[in-house]
Design brief:
Elements lengths: L1 E4 L4 E5 L1 H9 L12 E8 L1 E3 L2 E2 L3 E8 L2 E3 L1 E5 L5 E3 L6 E9 L5 E9 L4 E2 L2 E2 L6 E6 L14 H4 L4 E5 L4 E9 L9 E11 L22 E3 L9 E10 L4 E11 L12 E10 L9
Parallel strand pairs: 7-18, 9-19
Antiparallel strand pairs: 1-2, 2-4, 3-6, 4-5, 8-10, 10-16, 11-15, 11-17, 12-13, 14-16, 17-19, 20-21
């Protein structure tokens, strides 16, 4: 291209090298770790009246920012069956850090109130609910309900590396008064937090204005977000489902009539049926 300047309309020509440098040195930062320093330089070689001039150089530097991106995945295929009075009934939720940086995650668990849970609707509350962050790998069953100290384990996720996953186990104790087929749901909320801190991470600030600092860009919803994700799961009561019927028949002293007349002997038959897979004890 030609650039003109001054009253004499003198021109100088930029060599094709400029275009090659401009297009060939584009830095692709996708997948690059947050905080990586990117240095980029351009050199302009030109002539004036066929006389080579001193090259012009310019450079720019910036730090790769943090893409805050993660997801929660339910690991069970259905609501967890629980019997009235049962303790330590649990399910697992997987948290995957899709960011380009390690992150802390602060967690909170709440019981639902009439909200959808899988293909059902919440209509009961567990007597108690809590959770613990797994110290085991994704494929290791680990974190059995007993002993209790495991249930009362870590309450936040500390320094989860980029592209890594960890399980969160949610525990529940069913009340004795819960009825068959009642559904108790909970919501687990995970909030991305600042890594490299002692204890629970501090809040991430949505910043996009510094070249030489790590800014946070929330992307967990594909087009943006707030650094918060929720997952909903729960339990369904599988109690003994008993029905009882009572019938009578005249077996003697009815004068051949089959009628319950005075002097006749009547036999009663009581039938108790359990329509569930949960045994009923002490019937």
């Amino acid at each position: 291209m030609k650039l003109g300047y001054g009253k004499t309309r003198r021109f100088f020509r930029l060599g094709v090298t400029v275009a090659a440098l401009l297009f060939g040195q584009q830095a692709m930062a996708i997948g690059t770790a947050a905080g990586t320093v990117i240095d980029n330089t351009v050199t302009v070689d030109y002539e004036v009246n066929n006389v080579n001039q001193n090259d012009l150089n310019a450079s720019v530097s910036f730090w790769v920012d943090r893409r805050v991106d993660f997801e929660l995945t339910l690991l069970g295929g259905a609501l967890v069956p629980v019997a009235p009075g049962e303790t330590n009934a649990f399910f697992d939720i997987l948290l995957t850090n899709d960011s380009n940086s390690a992150l802390d995650f602060n967690l909170a668990l709440t019981q639902l109130d009439g909200d959808p849970v899988r293909a059902s609707t919440d209509d009961a509350n567990m007597q108690t609910v809590d959770y613990a962050v797994s110290a085991f790998s994704v494929n290791d069953p680990g974190l059995t309900p007993d002993p209790d100290p495991v249930r009362n384990g870590p309450q936040f996720i500390d320094e989860l590396a980029a592209d890594d996953s960890i399980r969160i186990r949610v525990f529940g104790d069913a009340a004795l008064a819960m009825l068959n087929d009642q559904v108790a749901g909970v919501q687990l909320e995970a909030t991305a937090a600042e890594p490299n801190t002692v204890g629970e991470g501090g809040a991430l600030v949505d910043t996009t204005d510094g070249d030489l600092q790590i800014d946070n860009v929330f992307a967990e919803d594909g087009t943006g977000g707030d650094g918060v994700q929720e997952a909903v799961d729960g339990w369904i009561v599988a109690s003994a489902d008993l029905t009882v019927t009572k019938a009578y028949s005249v077996i003697a002293g009815d004068l051949g009539t089959g009628q319950p007349i005075p002097g006749a002997t009547v036999q009663y038959v009581i039938t108790v049926v359990n329509g569930s897979s949960t045994p009923a004890d002490a019937v």
